[in-house]
Each structure stands twice: as C-alpha cells, then as structure tokens.
C-alpha cells in the first residue's frame, strides 16, 4: 500500500522567534537545527537574512542538519522598485540557503490598509519575487499571509495571489491563518475550494493557535488536501503561538487515520526523542515545561483516579491513547487519597520495587502516605519524595548523611557606602560516615544559601551530587490563618536530563524547604547508586 | 433569526480535580462555583458525593450559583446488586443536587477487561441506574465513557449503551472521548452516525486533550449535532486535561460560524470576566498562568514584530482575530503601548483618583508600571500595591515610617531535651516621626517573625493597624535557573472585612516578602486615613 508523502516545515527559528521574550543566540539556533535534522525534519526555516545579525550568520554556518532543506525567509519585494533593485530581497537571495519562503499578502484589506499599495501592485510584487527566486534554481515557496481571512473577505483576490505564485513556479503555496482565529471546518472548506485551482501536492498550511485550534486546523487542511505543514516546536510563536509540531508529529505517525495514508520524514527514533527535544527547548528558554502538553508533558500519561489506576494495571490501553514509550515519555500512576492500594502497587512496579502485593508493608506504606497527605504533603507532584518514602518502607534507603543542625540568617542594612544591601548566610552541620562536617555559604536567599551549604561538603558523596541543580521552587500555604502550614515543592535536575520533584511540609517555610532539599539530594544519591556509608 | 440553545457543563470541580496536584478545599469549590454561576454556566458538576468529605460537603452547602444546575457525579450501579441495594449509588441519589451525571462504560473491551462483567450486565447497570435517578424527578444524564474508542471497536454495543440511557429517560447522553486520542474528523463522523439513533438535542460531548484537539473535537461535535459541551476552566483535568471552556466560550460567543447559529448561557459580562476567572483559578492553584493561552493569555494580544506592530496601530483588526476587551484581556504592542494608557486611566478612575488625562505624571506612572512588570511585579493580582504606586506617582502617600534595617534568622538544632527544634527570630528597626524604634519577635517562620516584629511598635500608627492580619502568602519563582527572581504576594485583611493584596519582587524571598509586608501596612494606613507624620 503506497502512502502519500507529507512534508513538515519547522519555523521555530523564524516564526518561533516572534514569541515575546524569545531571542535565540546563533549557537542555540544551531543546536535546535541539528536536533531537527536528526529527527528527519524536511524543512528548517532558519531566519530572515538581513533582519538581524544572528539570522544572517545562521545561513553562513556549516550545516549538519540531516536531509533538512535550510530555508531562508523573506518578504516580497516592495512596490515601486524592481526585484533586482530591492536590497532586502537581494540579501535574502544571496543567503546560502537550500530554499526560500517569501511572505506575501493575500487579504485585500491588508494590502490597502497595512501595506498601502494597490491590489495590482501587490500581485506584481508576488510574481516578480517568486520569479526572481525561482531563477536562482533554488526551491521557492510562498506564505500567503492572512489567506483565510482574505479568502472570507474577497475569495477572488486571495486566490489570485496564490495562483500568481503558483504560476511563477513556486513549489509550495502555503495558506496562512496569520491571526489564528479560523476554525477547522472553515479551513477544510476553504482548502477544498483552493484545491480546485492549485493541486493539493503544491499546498501547505501555516496555522496559529489563537482559538486553540492550530493543531486541528493543520489536520483539517491535510484532510482537505494540503501536503505541507508548517509549525514550531512546543508551539512557540507570536501571541498564542504556531501549530505545535510536537503535538502533530505523533498524531501523524501513530494514528491510523493519518499514518495509513501518509508518510512523513520523521524516523521512529526521532519520534522517541520528541519528549527530550521538547524539554530541551524549554530548558534553553528557561521555561517551565507544560506538564499537560499532549504526548510529551510530564502528566500526559499520569493517572490519578483509583478506578482508572486499577484498569491501567490490567491493561494500559484502557486509559492510554498511545504507548508513552513511543514518544519517549513514561507512564505514572499517582498515589493519592483517590488512588489507594492499586495505584500504590502500580507505582511501586514502575519504580522497580518488587513486592508481593500481600506484603504487610504495603498497608503500612499506604497508611503513611495517607497520614502525610493529611498533614499537607502532596505526593502527586513529588514522585521523588514518594519513591524515597516507598523505598524506606521497604528498607532500601541507606542513611547517607545526618543533618545535625542548620541555621540561616537574612539581614538588610545600610553598608559602609550607605547603600541598602541584603546579606544572606547559612551554616549546616552534617555527619557523614561518623565524621562531622560544617559548611557555610552565602546565597540569594535563605533557601539558596542552605542549598549551597548543604551540598558543599558531603564527603564521599560529593562526586554523586556535583551535577545536581535546583530548577524550580514552589510554595503553597495550606489551611491559612494561625493553623497555616507551608508546603514547599522543589524541582531538581542533573546533567543526564532527569528531572525530579520533592516536597517538604512545616509551619516554617525554611524547615519545609530544607526537608525538600534533603529529599532531593537523597534521591539523587539513590538514583546514582551511591554506596551506603 | 432564532438560534438554537447550546448548553455548557462545567466539570472543573469534578473531572478538573483529577489533575495531578489539584485538590480543592470546600471553600475553593464554593468560590469557583459562584464565579461559574455568575457568568451564566448551565451546569456545575460539584463532585462525587461519597467519594470524599469535601465532595459530600459541597452538596450540603447553601447555594448562590445563579441559574446553574448543580450536578452530582456518580457511577452506574455495580453488577450483581440492585440499584436500591447499591450504597454508592444511593449516596449520590441522596445528595442535594439539581441533576445527576452518571458515568457508564460503552466500550466492550473495557466492560470485559476493566470492569470484568458481561456486556449485558453493563447494559442492565446503565438502565437500572438511569431509571432509579429519573424516578427521583431530577434531571439525569449519562457520560458514556470511552464512547468513541468503543464505537470504533464495536459500534453496535457502544450505541446500545447510549440508547439504553436514552430509553430510560436520560436528558443528556454525553459522548466521552475519555482517552483523548480521537481526532476531529472522527468525532464528526461518529456523532453524525449516533444522531441517526438519538436526537442531537439530547447529545453532549466530553473531550480530553491528549492529541491537542479537545477544543476542536468539541466544536466538531457541535457541528455534527450535539447540544451540550462538557469542559473545565483552563482545561484542568487528568493527563493533558479536559476541553478548555475558557477557549471554547469566546469562540461560541464571538465567531459568527457559531454565534449566528447558537445561543449560550454565558452573558456578555461573563465573557468580559473570562480573563479574570482564568487567572484567579491559576492563582488559587498557585500555578503560573499560561501566557500563550488562547483569548486570556497575557501574550494572547501581544505583538512583537515591527511590521505587525505598525499595522496594529493603523487598525487592530489587522493582527487580532477578536477585540481583546471582549474577553477582559488587553492589547500590548511591545514597542509603543497604546492600550496601556487607557487601561491605566480606567484603573485610576476605578480607584477614585481624579487626574487629567494629559497630566504628564500619567506617562511617568505608565513607564514605572512597565518597568516594574518587566522586573517581575504583577499588579493584576496585587491591586493594593498598584494603588500605592499610583498614589505615590500623584504625590498622595505620606512616608509614615522608614525601615532602617531588619534581620531574621532560622535555626534548627537539638534542644536541652535532645529534641530537634526550629527557632525563628526577627529584629526590625524603624523610624517613626524622627524617633528610632527597634522590635524583636519570634515566629513560625522568618516572614511571620518579620511581620510580627514590624507591626509590634509603629508608634502613633499602632492603633490603625491593630486589626490587620495576614490571610495568605504566595511565592512564585520567575525565570528559574540562575536568573531566578522571587515574587511574593501577600493577602491581608482587617476587621472591616476588607481584603487586599500586595506584591514584592527580589532575588531574595525574604526581601520580596518584606516589601509586600510594608506595602500591606502602608495600604492599611492610607485606607484608614492615618495622618502624615
């Protein structure tokens, strides 16, 4: 059975850079492009040559991006001058790219209001630009900006823009929902109309998520006939972002409705690497990954409800639409009040703890979990603390170190120069293998100072924790008022890319934080196979 | 032109509670239900009576939820016992609800594997449960669990489950995509088939976002004929979450493709309140709001690109699919913020500060707000700090007191009895009316100790702050990593019933907390009309 080829076009480095707060360095662009190439992306839009030094430099670099065609973005030439006389266009054509993608307007209103030129001048700009690019011998495509809004306002004009590019030899005519407000059934209907004029294998879709439908719009366009999808990793992009390729790729590769009909360039290994790529990008941008992201989110295969959990144990397909391993993610059954015994057993199995399910320690562990959850602990969001609790109940966590005491102080005062400064210090005393050790450190705040002091000298355990770092810190006040209890959740990571979460609870925020810090270090020691003292 | 009525069913308090890490307190459930009622929600699913004390208690509370029908969730009766002999079912039927929603299985595989009963026993359980609920005279509906997967595996059986509930008098037969992996065109096709057996005005849709299509699936189901949509605020829910009502409501109210055909219960004011409701829920859950969320995200109407920005200035419709004000959001153009000024003026008017709109202090205040928001302050959720900033810009806040210095320490050590204790102390030096005062206090934690010390002796201002109390304290880490900045938000209240929120930002959590504490006291002094020193 032969499947049709569907092409993927990544614009993380160009349209993704329009995200508020995102500004890739050259080195970051290269890292992302290499990942995209390795997974089998068809097109990588690297930037707009001439628009910034980074964008220009990207095209001058040596490439190692697999079979991906590196694409330079540009604007159609300005009205009133010829293509050869438009320096912006010439800079794009001079870039060392494999392909070009030009944005051209196709909404009459926009041409007249935003651009301030006549409809005919805009058509001529599209024709001349595509002609000039095609004459270089390189693959050329057009992003028809605001195509769907334009089609709804003036279908003849929108179509004439698309056809102009097609007639001049553009390989791809990409229909853009620039404002992101078009809905799937409209995309389907409009693409179906366009297909009467331009063959589907020459059409592409470029969707934005302003109505929460960018992924569905891309799928609707494919169902209607387009054969190229433009999008970004993690749905980066201006406003609500572009179509999220991280959500689209597994659907296209794993769902029979698409996988049976279409072939895409992404390899099985590329698919398995998707969770990693998604989180690596967040890491680069210093963002918290969306735990609820389709396919790759930390919670995407987490089950909380008790009945669901017991069904998952019988057969994961009962509550999983795809196997999490296929996208490099993993299953988690949560232990919580609602989950009960079966979730607990499932979680122990996942952690790799072999226990007979009638073992009396199971009931005791369940009691402990419930007691602690009543006291304010939340193991739902703190798998590492749960794992330690479970391993301790089963007797497999060594007492690597004992904390004898700690103290921390924060002082705000005027310094010798008369400036207001805040000074923060912590002292921690620990015993490792019978030997007392005392460390002192300064920090940005008391928790940071304690963290630094605690990890400064753990004797023989130091090599195991060198690459540990705190990546997030959350505080929640429970109960409120005078009975208030503080829950601190700490997220940690290490160089292997592992991320884990620990929790501490106390009326005192510093105490709660310290518990979570100690759990994080202990977890890291367990996972690294550190020896008992 | 008469439009068909489309009903919205919110399950934030039930299915939304399946979100990992989410566990609503009774008071939180009531706050959310009041907001839902005020916006015009048709159904509010409050929980599963009998499943937890909070869920049970919710139904016993006095209600003030507008026209919303409070719905109790339950499971169909167990096989092998009669409805009247099933204590779980009887607990649900005994709850003081306006309506019931029972979950019943409709996938043959699930009935046999997860439930371990025969297909006929499951059908009988559906019939008997619906019959028992309908006989109470209250509106009854069924959530057909895994309907779409079930239909794909065994359409006859899935349909027979839906028809059984319909025949027994269920008002709504809700088709659930429980695993969330169904795609919009499949939803459309399957709903179209079901409609041949059950009228569309009796059908509902319950979608999950595992393929990133929950919103589109809900819309596809409506296009195919269903007349009830189930979803949650902010798309809370297990794994990747449920269909996000915050994204669906504006589409249904504002997009002609739906708004011309359907009427929903949400009022225009409810729509304008959507941004607030979305952020309030995140605040309650101590989550960072998704800046890129459709319609309500802080970035949903932010324009970065220079050309886009200049077009937006000419006419916002050029790059906006709806006017941001309609959903209570606002436009932000990163180069030259025109929206900022008008919302600032509106806010000053709300506070009751009379200013000429050409007053040069307005522009300076706007600059300050922007600068501070860039640094991490969030005035959206801290009106009292904003009001102080505005009043200071206009010169109307006295310097009641000066803080010369503070220090706080936390120490954990073994006491004389050999017990581990944590001791926490703070010292604050202030100058009031030229007179230096120094106070020391102990507390549950460093912030509590600082708060007590700071309020211990403010001289002539003491009588004004006697009834001030801290009611909530929230911490959020911004940026993360080494650039991390801490934002502390403090909620205070006094005996008059007033509640206000202040904010502090610093790399040091203690500094940030102290700023927010000082703002809270200052705000209280302003509002109490305390005299200048």
Automatic annotation (TrEMBL), chains A, B:
Protein keywords: Amino-acid biosynthesis, Branched-chain amino acid biosynthesis, Isoleucine biosynthesis, Transferase
GO molecular function: (R)-citramalate synthase activity; 2-isopropylmalate synthase activity
Taxonomic source organism: Terrihabitans soli
Broad enzyme group: transferase
Entry EC number(s): 2.3.3.21
Pathway(s) served: Amino-acid biosynthesis; L-isoleucine biosynthesis; 2-oxobutanoate from pyruvate: step 1/3
Protein name, as recorded: Citramalate synthase
InterPro entries: 2-isopropylmalate_synth_dimer, AIPM/Hcit_synth_CS, Aldolase_TIM, Citramal_synthase, LeuA/HCS_post-cat, LeuA_allosteric_dom_sf, PYR_CT
Catalytic reactions of this protein: pyruvate + acetyl-CoA + H2O = (3R)-citramalate + CoA + H(+)
Record CDD domains: DRE_TIM_LeuA3
Gene3D superfamilies (alphabetical): 1.10.238.260, 3.30.160.270, Aldolase class I
Domain of life: Bacteria
SUPFAM superfamilies: 2-isopropylmalate synthase LeuA, allosteric (dimerisation) domain (SSF110921), Aldolase (SSF51569)
Residues in Pyruvate carboxyltransferase domain copies: 6-272
Name of one Pfam family that matches: HMGL-like
Gene Ontology biological process terms in this record: isoleucine biosynthetic process; L-leucine biosynthetic process
Annotated family: Belongs to the alpha-IPM synthase/homocitrate synthase family.
């Amino acid at each position: 059975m032969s499947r049709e080829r569907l092409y993927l076009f990544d614009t993380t480095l160009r349209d993704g850079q329009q995200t508020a707060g995102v500004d890739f360095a050259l080195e970051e662009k290269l890292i992302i492009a290499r990942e995209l190439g390795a997974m089998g992306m068809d097109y990588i839009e690297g930037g707009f040559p001439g628009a910034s030094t980074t964008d220009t430099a990207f095209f001058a670099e040596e490439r190692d991006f697999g079979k991906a065609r590196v694409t330079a973005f540009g604007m159609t030439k300005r009205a009133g001058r010829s293509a050869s006389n438009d320096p912006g266009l010439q800079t794009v054509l001079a870039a060392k790219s494999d392909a070009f993608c030009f944005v051209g307007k196709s909404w009459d209103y926009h041409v007249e209001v935003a651009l301030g030129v006549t409809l005919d001048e805009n058509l001529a700009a599209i024709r001349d630009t595509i002609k000039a690019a095609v004459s270089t011998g390189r693959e050329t495509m057009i992003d028809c900006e605001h195509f769907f809004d334009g089609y709804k306002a003036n279908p003849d004009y929108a179509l004439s823009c698309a056809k102009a590019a097609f007639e001049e030899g553009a390989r791809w005519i990409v229909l853009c929902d620039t404002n992101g407000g078009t809905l799937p059934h409209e995309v389907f209907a409009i693409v179906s109309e366009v297909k009467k004029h331009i063959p589907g294998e020459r059409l592409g879709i470029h969707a934005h998520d302003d109505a929460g439908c960018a992924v569905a719009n891309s799928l609707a366009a494919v169902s209607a006939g387009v054969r190229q999808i433009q999008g970004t990793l993690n749905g980066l992009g201006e406003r609500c972002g572009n179509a999220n390729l991280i959500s689209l790729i597994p659907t296209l590769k794993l769902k029979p409705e698409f996988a049976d009909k279409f072939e895409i360039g992404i390899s099985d290994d590329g698919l398995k690497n998707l969770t990693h790529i998604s989180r690596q990008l967040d890491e680069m941008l210093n963002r918290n990954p969306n735990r609820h992201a389709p396919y790759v989110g930390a919670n995407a295969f987490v089950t909380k409800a008790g009945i669901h959990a017991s069904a998952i144990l019988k057969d994961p397909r009962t509550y999983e639409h795809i196997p999490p391993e296929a996208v490099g993610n993993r299953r988690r059954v949560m232990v919580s009040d609602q989950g009960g015994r079966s979730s607990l057993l499932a979680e122990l199995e996942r952690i790799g703890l072999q226990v007979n399910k009638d073992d009396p320690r199971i009931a005791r562990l369940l009691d402990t979990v419930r007691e602690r959850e009543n006291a304010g602990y939340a193991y739902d969001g703190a798998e590492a603390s749960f794992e330690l609790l479970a391993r301790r109940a089963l007797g497999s966590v060594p007492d690597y170190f004992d904390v004898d005491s700690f103290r921390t102080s924060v002082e705000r005062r005027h310094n010798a120069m008369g400036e207001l400064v805040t000074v923060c210090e912590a002292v921690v005393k620990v015993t490792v293998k019978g030997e007392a050790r005392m460390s002192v450190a300064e920090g940005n705040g008391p928790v940071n100072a304690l963290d630094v002091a605690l990890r400064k000298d753990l004797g023989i355990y130091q090599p195991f924790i060198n690459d540990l770092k705190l990546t997030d810190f959350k505080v929640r006040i429970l109960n409120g008022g005078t009975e208030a209890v503080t829950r601190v959740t700490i997220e940690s990571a290490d160089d292997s890319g592992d991320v884990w979460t620990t929790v501490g609870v106390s009326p005192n925020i510093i105490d709660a934080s310290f518990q979570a810090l100690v759990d994080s270090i202990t977890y890291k020691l367990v996972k690294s196979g550190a020896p008992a003292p």
